[in-house]
Amino acid sequence: MEDYFELIGRYQYSSEAIILKGKLEAEGIAVFMRDNNTVDANPLYSNAIGGVKLFVYKDNYSKAMEIISQVSEYSLDDACQLMKCPNCGAEEIDRVTSIKDFKSLFAFVFSIFLGSLPFYSKHKYKCVKCKFEFN
Ligand SMILES: [Zn+2]
Q: 78 alpha carbon to ligand 1 midpoint, in Å?
């Protein structure tokens, strides 16, 4: 399966993933969501399993990333992988969202529909190795 699909992002809440999924599908890109049922059933599991994941076909990867970078505060490019953990120096860094409440989620949804940058949505980076979180 990994041969055909490429991970385009992970999200703490399925609502966030669903919005991006809808946006990508509107652009004609097939999107596959994983672990959303687990996260919906128990949101506390979201961090443990790495959030809701979105996949696209490898052929659509660059186009999908382009669209995501238009709606996202950060473009999910290789810059993320070049970052180092300030705590242990590891290079495996995950980008995690920190939408914590309905107000920020609503603002996030609203801003995407308006086509502007999310005002309340903040992103953090999390070290895969030591779980240290930083901005
Ligand atoms: Zn670390």
A: 18
